[in-house]
């Protein structure tokens, strides 16, 4: 019976950290050799990190990747390794090289280059034209890279070349629908070819995307043999039986909770942690208003970084309710973060007095409300500068979609954890976090009164969000259809929504593109995120 012992490196390989990534490859290579692996597999673009973007235009960057690959090849005696890297030979390719017996034995080039959503592969790479196949310890193995497996032909080429097992290395960003889509594609490829498939994916946050791992083993009949947990780094061991074309996972980490809220929460925590740590910031700071968005952001930040690296600031005005003051203080004390109360009243009033001559003859309106938000923004930025803590913006996707946010006010911040999270989902996540408090080592950290209260910006007396917006259940349902679903106004209205409400919401989305262009980055967790994925023109006559 022919068997192949594999070690799958479901780890983070940060963008640009070529030497550090190579060192991690070497460490894992040694572990794989010690564990008796025949082949150790690493994610897509292991050495450069994914996506390296315009770093790929720098000859010195490509040369560094080549140099590290050669050094790693020399260390492969006793075990083979499949390593992702950019490969330059006049043109640049997204490549995977099989390292064996001290040399680069063969190099596969990615054939299908994605150029949609967050992907820009066609900007940087030239496509490969054939599937690479290698014999490893008597097993014929096809080598594919990420998007290749989403097309039938590369896997079919491998099968025609005699492949029994197909190894796919990936840097596949997470969203709520992605794992089901991956499984469907892998099942289809296995059933079409009769080959078993190994799907190894990257872990980690990179600017506006998060990679979940979620690696998979699929047998030759299309059945799923094993699923790796999301957002967990691990060296995953597997055995392939060539006679039955089946895979067996060896002591893989168990999934704690596969509920959608659990995985989404883990994605947001990972996004915050990696953004802060990879960019070298000591901690974060945020405005804690007593509302649901800032409450969830604070819980996420503490779970990502620990309370000692988080500062919360309550900035009351004449319109701040006692409920907000009590809720903010209770949460800050419960989580054990540094907490300050700094009133904006005197500063706001000084702005009003300075502007009064220029405002003469004009009634109070939204200007004064926004000025309160901008007063808070200026103070928070000053605290961020003084204490060297990155400011987190706390706005959610519903608000960003319709422009219910103030430029240079509550939009201040360098990272926005909830930027791609709709308001209704903010509530679901907050309730989930409280319900699973024991997992995080404490009690409820988001005061129930904060969850149950009507949402309000508290910029005027008795204000609620629904004074300006439809109820969030209705608003989010329309937004999801328009943004993720790309449905027309007529299609949305035909599903039971009032035409005037749909028209108003769509108008707000299109009108506020200029605000979103100036917003902080945040983790992409839906199928259509604002930022590098959804790129609408600011100036447009289409309505």
CATH topology name of the largest domain, in short, is: Nitrilase/N-carbamoyl-D-aminoacid amidohydrolase
Global geometry: elongated
Distance from first to last alpha carbon = 65 Å
- At the fourth level of CATH, the homologous superfamily of the largest domain is Carbon-nitrogen hydrolase
Strand content: 15-25%
The CATH architecture classification of the largest domain is 4-Layer Sandwich
- Poorly predicted regions are none
CATH class of the largest domain: Alpha Beta
Tell me the helix content. 25-40%
Strand order of the largest sheet: 5-4-3-2-1-14-15
Structural class: alpha/beta
What is the total tally of β strands?
19
What is Rg? 26 Å
- Residue-averaged pLDDT: 94
Total count of domains: 2
Major sheet: 7 strands, mixed
Count of helix runs:
17
Organism: Dyella marensis
Protein name: Glutamine-dependent NAD(+) synthetase
EC number: 6.3.5.1
Binding site for L-glutamine: 116, 172, 178
